[in-house]
Amino acid sequence: MDGLVPRELLEHPAKLKPHDIEDGLVRVGYLPNQKIVTTLFLAFQLDKPILVEGPAGCGKTYLGVCTSKLFGFPLIRLQCYEGLLPEQSIYEWNYHKQLLKIQMNHLKDNDECEKTIFSEEYLLERPLLTALKSPEAVLLIDEIDKADEQFEAFLLELLGERQITIPELGTVRAPENQKLITVLTSNSSRELSEPLKRRCLHLYLDYPPKELEKRIILLNCPQMYDELVDNILDFVENLRNLRLQKTPSIAESIDFARSLLAVGKNDLDPDTVNTLLSTLLKVKSDIDMVKRKGIENLLGVGN
What we know:
Blueprint: H1 7-11, H2 18-27, H3 34-46, E1 50-53, H4 60-71, E2 75-79, H5 86-89, E3 91-93, H6 95-104, H7 110-117, E4 123-125, H8 127-133, E5 136-142, H9 149-161, E6 163-166, E7 170-173, E8 179-186, H10 194-198, E9 201-204, H11 210-220, H12 226-240, H13 250-262, H14 270-276, H15 284-293, H16 295-300
Parallel strand pairs: 1-8, 1-9, 2-5, 5-8
Antiparallel strand pairs: 3-4, 6-7
């Protein structure tokens, strides 16, 4: 898999400069600020994970995806959720294959059979172990705040020492000279542990300034004229200032802009906005609130 950073720079990190990161991210469709560029540059140079925190929909996951494209590394993604067990993210045993082996060897020495079935031949790799054993990869651990603190504790060995201990096999270490960029994202739904934070570079992403979000929309909708994008962003900003259950994300701003183009509209009239409101708002109570406030009023604020 070829990336936009030349292989020579990957082999000689001292030659890699921040502008190489910035130019590459832009070329893969991610418009970064200087903070993002610097953090990603340091993550590569210092060989440290990045913890990216911020509200949902501000580009945290997409940064991990684009980092994979930038360096040309395989993307290995672990989606966290409540109740996620370490075994589900690191490894599991192939129980069906183990059972078949036991049945085939039922007349043989049981101790020898037990040693055999708990070997790598019967191990199913999950994302964390796959990433650890890869010579190069981007490991995206998405929404770590949805997992519990016990799961965080299992991550510390991987994040700090690049190794995982499997009780039946011992310690599995990363290959020598491994190039692994780990990106953890969090929507800040709970406070993460201090040991996890200490092992990571920290990056906080918020919704971008209007001019940057305008560039992002124009990158995705190049046929849209500037004044309409300004009007869209004024309306979205007014929505974000309300007490909504789910604030419109950057991706939803893009969807709204694309929807306007799809229905052939080149201005924001209340009827069109009412029809397309579900591309921005995904919770019924939020839609009801906006309608009570009056779409006309929200479109007129700041004009």
